[in-house]
Amino acid sequence: MSRLVEENWYYNSIRDIPEIDGDRICELWTEYKNGNDESGKELYTHFLRPAFSVAVKYASEINANDEVFNDLIQTANVGVRTAFETFDKEVSSSTIISWVMQNCKWACLNFIKYELTNIKLPVGIVTTKQEIRRVLLENPEMSEDDYNAIAKKVGCKESTVKEAVIASGNTYPLSTLESEDDTHCQFEEFIEQKTYDTPDGYMSKREMTEEVADICSVLNDDERKVIELRYGIFGNEEHSFQRIGEILGLSKQRVNQIEKKALKKMKGKAIRMSKGLSV
User: Fold this and answer.
1) Same domain for 98 and 37
2) Same domain for 100 and 15?
3) How far apart are CA 23 and CA 79, in angstroms?
4) Does residue 41 sit in the same domain as residue 97?
5) Are 19 and 33 spatial neighbours (Cβ–Cβ below 8 Å)?
6) How far apart are CA 29 and CA 234, in angstroms?
7) In terms of pTM, does the model score above 0.85?
8) Are strands 185-186 and 177-178 parallel, antiparallel or unpaired?
9) At residue 119, does pLDDT exceed 60?
10) Secondary structure letter of residue 187 according to DSSP
11) 193 in a domain, yes or no?
12) How far is CA 201 from CA 116, 166, 198, in A?
């Protein structure tokens, strides 16, 4: 992922954008809302680097290639614009920053869901299909199944044209509904995907992991280790009190005490989160 970032042309174009402080963010936002487009442009430019960081985070999680990484960057920037259009809360630097970053996150997660549920044609076929479309627009008397005539116009083999036409005509999103026999279903229900979780499962797991991490933030190091080992979270396996004690060099009774204290603190944090409190 570091290679993708370092070699990315867009990163090199925004890396030197100067930082601005919270007071300046509020000032620019107020001016923008009062009709000053230049202030809006300056504020939008400021958020390009944080948006890029969001794209890097999600690209790393799905091991994205260059193409998908660039798509994520554009998607995060769309999130910034969406935040500008929908922000109506009290003006403060923290609320503006939080809203913009949240919109970047939502945009990227929605993109990932789309990315994981659609079959993409190879670049070569897409390029050929674009050339076929151009030829058909310039020659309305021709039809898409005139493979030989199109191949001569495009400058490729007849088999290449036929492959592009057939492939693009039979490729559908996995979410496409099929109802040939009046039975509505989704293709993704029948295709086993071993590389990724299902999109909904991926997003649910992400949200749950983030919530658990937030709840665990109230724990000290010993409490966190006990909870991780006891309940098998964050990549750990579940262990008994005895085994946890052996790993951490503690007695079984001490591990039990730490767990009870940790669970009490986590419960309090969860209650506060459910009420919308940040502490």
Assistant:
1) yes
2) yes
3) 23
4) yes
5) no
6) 39
7) no
8) antiparallel
9) no
10) G
11) no
12) 11, 32, 5
Specify whether the CB–CB gap between 265 and 219 falls below 8 A: yes
Enumerate residues 6+ apart whose C-beta is below 8 A from 272: 278, 279
- Structure-model confidence comparison of residues 189 and 244, the more confident one: 244
The torsion angles phi and psi of 171, rounded to 5 degrees, stand at -115, 125
Q: How far apart are CA 260 and CA 194, in angstroms?
A: 38
Q: Which helix (H) or strand (E) holds 136?
A: helix 123-138
Contact of 25 with 34, CB cutoff 8 Å = no
Tokens of 71: 């798509």
Structural domain of 168: 123-172
Residue 180 lies in a domain: no
- Same domain? For 76 and 167 the reply is no
Give the confidence band of 12 by pLDDT, cuts at 50, 70, 90.
confident
Look at residue 256 and tell me if it is in a domain.
Answer: yes
Q: Max alpha carbon distance in the chain (Å)? A: 85
Domain total for the chain? 3
Residue 36 counted as domain residue: yes
